[in-house]
Specification:
Elements (H helix, E strand, L loop, with lengths): L7 H6 L12 H10 L3 H9 L4 H14 L2 H11 L8 H14 L4
Helix pairs in contact: 2-3, 2-4, 2-6, 3-4, 4-5, 4-6
Length: 104
Amino acid sequence: MTTSDVTLSGLKTSLAKSEPPEGLAPPLQALWWAAKGDWDKAHHLVQDENDRNAAWVHAYLHRVEGDRPNADYWYRQARRPSANDALDAEWDTIAGALLRAPAK
């Protein structure tokens, strides 16, 4: 399975499983683990990635953690505005955008 085979609803449904769908890029894997409550695993997946998608997820994770200054730094790295909406809404926004992004 590749990212292009996964929909937002399919990604959410997969949260009932013990592992994310195969073939997801690290930022999407990180969102998956974050939704499962494993912040450390999610953070590990994006902390050494160097693209804007990973930075966006990294920002979200620091918002989840409650570290707004660090989150704002990562939003700037992602070239995204700092989010102020509910965390679950931001998760949906990021996941939806990453699932629609063309494969690299």
